[in-house]
Amino acid sequence: MENNPWLKHFFPLLLTFFFFSPFPLLQPSLALQSDDTYVRQPPRQIVDTPHRRSKSDPQQVHISLVGKDYMRITWITDDKNVESKVEYGKVSGKYDATAVGEHTSYHYFFYSSGKIHHVKIGPLEAATTYYYRCGGHGPEFSFKTPPPNFPIEFVVVGDLGQTEWTASTLTHVDSKDYDVFLLPGDLSYADSHQLLWDSFGRLVEPYASRRPWMVTEGNHEVETFPIIYPHGFKAYNARWLMPYEESGSTSNLYYSFDVSGCHIIMLGSYTDFDQDSAQYKWLESDLGKVDRTKTPWVMVLLHAPWYNTNLAHKGEGESMRKSMEDLLYKARVDVVFAGHVHAYERFTRIYDNKADPCGPVYITIGDGGNREGLALMFENPSSELSLYREPSFGHGRLRIVDGTRAHWSWHRNNDSDAYVADEIWLENLTKSKSCWLNTQDNDGSKVNKDEL
Prior knowledge:
The relative contact order is 0.13. Helix content is 17%, strand content 29%. It is built from seven helices and 26 strands. By secondary structure, the protein is an alpha+beta fold. The protein starts with a helix and ends in a 15-residue tail after the last helix.
């Protein structure tokens, strides 16, 4: 494709016309959004990250947690003959283990992806640095596995994109160590421009190859097109394979995983979620299996927020909230992170639109660095449920100290510095006996969980 001037230059312009023209029917991804009546702050320019390695060398390398003590290594090569294998070990340049995996590729109109490799390695030791090489070619990479127990630190960033703001956010994230990166949707903002998926993968590789990135889809990952691609998520599912099978899910759009005393659930805002859906039944089953003595912290990530006082995307998560909120409340989920709204907002503990000490803390963190700019307009006066809100780019950090306490902080991008603009200590709900004495099972019977 790189040697064909028509495909390289004219075809992207043609796609731009189709997907970003003023005709709604030709905007499959953007049609999921409501009409924007708010004014966005001008974003910074898109960062183009070119491919500078050979066709056999790995590019777009990223890693993800997959099952207990395992890691999945994902990368892409232009050379379709490169083997899907990873050599790894605990000493740089010395690889005493090798794993072989699988590969895939996909077509989207005239675009053909490279060979997308997925290799599962392990079992691995906790809190240990491993060095690895992909496909027998190219540079050596390294990562550190999460700790076996508390404390553990998560970075949470939504609506990341690939702009100069994105680069600023990732630089701030990298200025302090962490264990796992969580992204509640809207990764590349490719919006059917498949070359932007490649550019995004290269942009985040220095970070995503060193710490596990766990993601769920947003509206910009849908990429449907009438008749030709009616189901969507073709690029997302091929490139960002998550451990859905290991969690009993039948879809890469929703899954869960355990890490260092935490059970984390990634939900799909853009697939069916009503009470008859596969996602709902999976979530009900998944929450029923959680052992809070082993994983006292339970977190949920999704894209479209259930609670939101910003004028942007107002009410878009309401139908999902009505369908699934009871499940989260009865399971005493500790915190719910969302993206979609390009601003930061932290709520109190909520259930059914009311303050409730047994409900989750809701946090919107859709301010990673998207190309559309910030959502500047909030409701006025503010809701008493909303405790802090600000339309600025930034990232969040959740440091879980032990089974009882966690520290949440939101870091605003101030060009060369990341300023802590909001922070709070969270108490784990398993320590609140009053919250567990009155929980109800699905049949309405009381469930006594006083032992927690």
